[in-house]
Design brief:
The chain is 72% helix and 8% strand. The protein is built from 6 helices and 3 strands. The protein has a 3-stranded antiparallel β-sheet with strand order 1-2-3.
């Protein structure tokens, strides 16, 4: 029998398994699906987040001492030799998938918790997930500028998903240990 405090991890694990099973399909058809969704206007609301994320990624890269700039959803990152690499943040690269995973785990993991604990866990989860997405996109930018498109694409398609999985497991471990505790989680 499963303890209720294990439900967020089980939810994340099941969702991650489904993502990893579908990953070859998603990565193969990602460009086609993105173009189709953009033509249909489905991606519009999510695409409007891309310029904001691009500016936040540029700020993060500049904090790390890298030369970068953003214009709308376009990013430019310069390597140490002054060579520029142009990147585009599409609606499906902003990390909405990780927010869906977070939401599913919150729906299960916050049952029976106090309002104060729910708010704390929600805020930490949301901010942490956004930060993980920013770091993920920043790493893709650095890899594209330093190592080229292929390593950046491989990281984007595979390691970026693993970053989200690791973050969610760490988040729920910490939340249950220091915020929810044994009396807070269902």
């Amino acid at each position: 029998m499963t303890h209720r405090e294990d439900l967020p991890q089980i939810t994340v694990l099941v969702a991650c398994c489904l993502i990893l099973v579908a990953l070859p399909f998603v990565t193969t058809y990602n460009d086609l699906l993105t173009a189709g969704a953009m033509r249909l206007g489905v991606a519009g609301p999510l695409q409007s987040v891309s310029p904001i994320e691009a500016r936040m990624v540029v700020a993060l890269l500049q904090i790390l001492g890298l030369h970068a700039a953003a214009a709308g959803s376009q990013l430019v990152v310069w390597d140490a030799g002054g060579r520029a690499t142009n990147l585009f943040i599409s609606w499906n690269c902003i990390g909405w998938q990780s927010l869906v995973l977070l939401g599913a785990s919150l729906a299960v993991g916050l049952r029976g918790a106090s309002t104060e604990a729910r708010v704390q866990v929600f805020v930490i989860g949301l901010l942490g997930t956004v930060l993980v997405n920013l770091v993920r996109v920043a790493i893709v930018c650095v890899l594209a500028a330093v190592a080229g498109q292929t390593p950046a694409l491989i990281f984007h398609d595979y390691a970026g998903t693993l970053m989200t999985v690791i973050w969610l497991f760490a988040f729920w471990f910490a939340s249950q240990r220091w915020i929810l505790g044994p009396g807070e989680s269902g």
